[in-house]
Design a protein that fits this description.
Layout (H helix, E strand, L loop, with lengths): L1 H18 L23 E2 L5 E2 L10 H14 L1 H6 L6 H30 L1 H9 L1 H39 L6 H10 L2 H5 L2 H11 L1 H5 L1 H4 L3 H12 L5 H36 L6
Antiparallel strand pairs: 1-2
Helix pairs in contact: 4-5, 4-6, 4-7, 5-6, 6-7, 6-13, 12-13
């Protein structure tokens, strides 16, 4: 009789386990991608560098790693920049250039039709006149990469200026890690833009895409504070001082970069041969 009761209890337990519901998918806490192997977990590359940045993980599709990193810099800014690891500058620079090229191109696809709608007569003249059309295409051909490089330079200067601010308050700082901060901060421009909104709407729904407008509110300041406190080890008071002192250097450096890029744009538009268009 006891054996029979024991067998019934065992059968009841097995049925309970079979009916237990298990979540269909587990999403990454940092980037939100169900297919991510886990951005928050460290992995060591062959060179011995600990990489927690999705973009720097070996293997995987380029666009997938780029999107996961850009999303982490924006929707998980405090976590991402507060624990940004040291590492080489080259991968961060490649990420920044590709990100800004995509962001700049997506904005041009938005502003182009608006320009045509606002100035239809002028746009028709440019389209029909061979000389004006050639000049317009040369300017556009030079403007997209030049503007993308200007944004990369502005973000890089922002990172270097944070390094100067940390040194000014007497704390140790790594120029390379600060530069990586600035380069990976270009992910903001991709997510808070037309392309980012479209991808968010496709992957996460319209509600997530609608949040894009709110993501940019105070994002640079929140990211910089997280970096200064989490990576540089500054307390709140010294982080504020370092942040304020970095503003002037960042503005001056960005203006210099803008003038340089503008000069390159003008020269490129005039020098590019007409036969390309």
């Amino acid at each position: 009789m006891g054996a029979r009761r024991l067998e019934e209890e065992r059968s009841h337990v097995e049925e309970s386990w079979d009916q237990l519901e298990v979540p269909a998918a587990v999403v990454c806490a940092l980037c939100g991608d169900p297919g991510c192997s886990g951005c928050a977990f460290e992995s060591t590359t062959h060179s011995g560098i600990v990489a927690i940045v999705p973009w720097e993980r070996p293997g995987g599709p380029v666009l997938g790693r780029l999107w996961a990193t850009a999303r982490a810099t924006t929707k998980g800014a405090e976590s991402f920049f507060g624990s940004l690891p040291d590492g080489p500058v080259a991968p961060a620079l490649g990420f920044a250039v590709l990100t800004e090229l995509l962001a700049t191109t997506s904005w041009s696809l938005v502003w182009g039709p608006l320009l045509v709608a606002a100035f239809p007569v002028w746009c028709k003249h440019v389209l029909l006149d061979p000389h004006a059309r050639s000049l317009a295409f040369r300017v556009l051909f030079a403007a997209l990469p030049c503007f993308a490089l200007m944004l990369v330079g502005a973000h890089a200067m922002h990172g270097v200026s944070l390094h100067s601010g940390v040194r000014k308050v007497g704390a140790p700082s790594s120029r390379r890690r600060a530069l990586r901060f600035g380069l990976y901060a270009t992910g903001w421009d991709l997510i808070i833009g037309p392309l980012g909104a479209c991808v968010l709407a496709y992957k996460e729904g319209l509600a997530a895409a609608g949040e894009v407008l709110h993501l940019g509110a105070g994002l640079p300041t929140r990211s910089a504070k997280a970096f200064l406190r989490g990576v540089c080890g500054l307390d709140l008071a010294r982080a504020k001082v370092a942040l304020r002192s970095s503003y002037v250097a960042a503005v001056i450096a960005t203006l210099i970069a803008a003038f340089i890029i503008l000069g390159v744009l003008v020269v490129g538009a005039l020098v590019l041969p007409n036969r390309l268009f």
